[in-house]
Each structure stands twice: as C-alpha cells, then as structure tokens.
Design a protein that fits this description.
The protein is α+β, with helices and mostly antiparallel strands. The protein folds into two domains: about 100 residues, no CATH class; about 70 residues, Orthogonal Bundle (DNA Binding (I), subunit A), CATH 1.10.30.50. It has six helices and six strands, in the order αββαββαββααα.
C-alpha cells in the first residue's frame, strides 16, 4: 500500500517485467470502474479511470480492487500492482434520465440520420434538426430534436417533415438512462483488456 506523500515511479520496474508488458506506458493501463453492484458505471463511453486516479482512490479506501494488471508501480518505499478493475464501495444511484447533450442525442439515434439513414459512426458528420421548426413554435427538447446529416438538414430547412416530403425513421423521444446504456452496448470499444470481459456484456455474436 502506498503511503501519504510518496511518489509513483514507472522507471523502477524490473527489466524482465518491462519486457513482459511490451514497454506499455502506465497511461495505457486504465481501470474499468464498476458501481458497488459490480456493473459498469457507463457502457458508452466506457467508465474508465486513469492509473493516477485509481491509485488515489485505492489509497483513500474508496474502492475495492477486483482485478489487477501484471504491471507494478513503485513509490519510494513500497510497491503496488496496478488495478485493472475496481468497484466503488458506495453505490451511486443513476438518474432516471440522461443529460440532454449532443452526444446523448446522437447515441439515442444510434449515430444515424433519421431522414436518410446515413450512419456517421462517431457522430462528427451529424448535426441536429428541429422536427417542428422553431418558427412554428418547435422547442429544443428530446421530443423535438433528431439526428440529421448536413444534407438532409439543409434539404428540410425550416419546414416540417410533411412540408419537405421527408419521412422520419424514429419519432424523437426522451430516453431513460437504461435506454442509452442498452444502446451503448452495441458499440464496444476497440480495446478491451481481458480482465474486463467478465463484467461487460456487449450485443455481439457469441463465439461458436
């Protein structure tokens, strides 16, 4: 266990261990953060903490170390295996509804234009559209905002979908946090450490 005031030094790792981890830096070793019920705090984006935040939380006894990397970090007088999965000691109750943000809106609509079906992947090629235009009293709310590609947004302009002769694929709605968590499972990150897999459930085909 680390003691107050001690510093962590990566360059004190044994040479054999450095070879074993293929010279990965500590920054490439985040920890998966679970709630006290051992479920991820978030699926998309995946709830990950940096190694610095993890070590601090361990020192303050706010988390339980569930799994560890083979990598060891050293202070001036002690050493600790770097946690790869941690669980909060106190349960954080999620809110019923997520914040109304551009990212959450795109996630609700699966990063897809709701007029033409264009899939943007990371959402950078999407914008948002007022289904009922503001000139007609349309509000900026979950129930009136939808994801749209720039071409469809320009085509629709300040008209309603009916006026523009454009069909909307999914009627806008206010999602629950549970809705977004479920949708987020469809987008597993490119990298998953093997120690995380028992705590994650992605919408992908099982290995045969």
């Amino acid at each position: 266990m680390l003691h107050e005031g001690e510093t962590i030094q990566e360059n004190e790792l044994p040479l054999s261990h450095e070879a074993d981890v293929k010279n990965k830096s500590l920054d490439a070793c985040p920890a998966l953060v679970l709630n006290a019920d051992f479920k991820p705090l978030s699926y998309f984006p995946l709830s990950l903490w940096s190694w610095q935040d993890v070590i601090k939380a361990v020192y303050l006894k706010r988390v339980i170390v569930v799994e560890e990397y083979d990598k060891i970090v050293h202070s001036t007088t002690s050493q600790i295996r770097l946690p790869s999965v941690i669980s909060l000691k106190e349960y954080i109750a999620p809110g019923a509804h997520p914040s109304f943000t551009r990212f959450n809106l795109f996630l609700r609509d699966r990063f897809t234009c709701q007029y033409c079906g264009f899939m943007a992947g990371n959402g950078r090629e999407l914008t948002f559209d007022h289904v009922i235009p503001r000139r007609l009293g349309g509000r900026t709310s979950w129930q009136n905002i939808t994801a749209a590609c720039p071409a469809c947004n320009l085509k629709k302009g300040g008209r309603t979908p009916q006026e523009a002769h454009m069909n909307i694929r999914t009627k806008p709605y206010r999602p629950t946090l549970y809705d977004l968590q479920n949708i987020g499972r469809s987008y597993p990150p490119n990298y998953l450490h093997e120690s995380w897999r028992d705590f994650l459930y992605w919408d992908s085909e099982l290995d045969r």
